[in-house]
Amino acid sequence: MEQHKTLVEVTSNKIIDFMKDQNLDIGDKLPNEYELIDVVGVGRSTLREAIKMLVSKNILEVRHGAGTFVSKQKGIANDPFGFGLIKDQDKMTADLFELRYLLEPTMAAMAAQHATAEQIEKLKYLQNELKRLIREGDDTHILVDMEFHTTIAEASGNIALSHIVPIINQSIGLYNSNNDPKDPKGSIDFHDEILAAIEARDPVYAMDAMTVHMAMNRNKMKKKKSV
After folding, report:
1. Are 171 and 77 in contact (CB under 8 A)?
2. H helices of 22-88, where?
3. 156 belongs to a structural domain
4. Alpha carbons 149 and 166: distance in angstroms, whole number
5. Both 141 and 53 in a single domain?
6. Is residue 164 part of a domain?
7. How many angstroms separate the CA atoms of 55 and 33, rounded?
8. How far apart are CA 160 and CA 151, in angstroms?
9. Do 160 and 132 sit in the same domain of this protein?
10. Which residues pair with 70 in a beta bridge?
11. Can you tell me where the transmembrane regions are (predicted)?
């Protein structure tokens, strides 16, 4: 049994190496099962177990009838740091907001310097989508809000930030009992300022706009805790 587990792990690593060698990106499709068997040199059952392992780690996703694809989650598990196990969830969430306050202003400044035209267009799309969802009273605007910040992290050009920031934001969404999806006031205006700064390639303006945005979010949470 242990040898089989090891073989599955080795096979999953071979699949990851293959993805890197082929420069597969998010949403790209992997070869079919028969081709992958030739690539990794194992039987069908071992290959399927290896794929299951990678799916569980959010590295791959299987779309029935379509095939196996690189996951948009970039290998990020729902709670990789174990935040859900921390007893004092309010303190943990407050500390995560503090971490965002430290990271995201610099991240926005970097995005103003490094964002591609495609990333700026994506930010515009997400901002318009956020406005629409808030206008319609759709609580899923929170997901678009997180995607907006994730895109800024990606636009910063810093690979570590592009992986860490989504984890922080997702954890806040999962565990913040003070998070009120019906209280989006201010987010739209702040996002407009941040987006304008990034589009203008003005890192100082971008940093200031994000600093104010993070400070307002942090203060809003503190007020809710004191009520």
Report:
1. no
2. 33-40, 44-56
3. yes
4. 8
5. no
6. yes
7. 15
8. 13
9. yes
10. 60
11. none
Kindly tell me if the per-residue pLDDT of 179 is higher than 60.
no
Residue 26 has φ and ψ, to the nearest 5°, of -55, 130
Domain limits for position 215: 83-225
- DSSP-H helix ranges across 57-140: 89-114, 117-135
Same domain, 108 and 184: yes
Is residue 113 domain-shared with residue 165, that is, in the same domain?
yes
Backbone dihedral angles phi then psi of residue 67, each to the nearest 5 degrees: 130, -165
The answer to whether residues 151 and 64 belong to one domain is no
Q: What is the pTM of this model?
A: 0.68
The share of the chain scoring above pLDDT 90, in percent, equals: 45
Which residue, chain included where needed, has tokens 């910063």?
Answer: 156
Structure confidence at residue 76 (pLDDT): 62
How many distinct structural domains can be found in the chain? 2
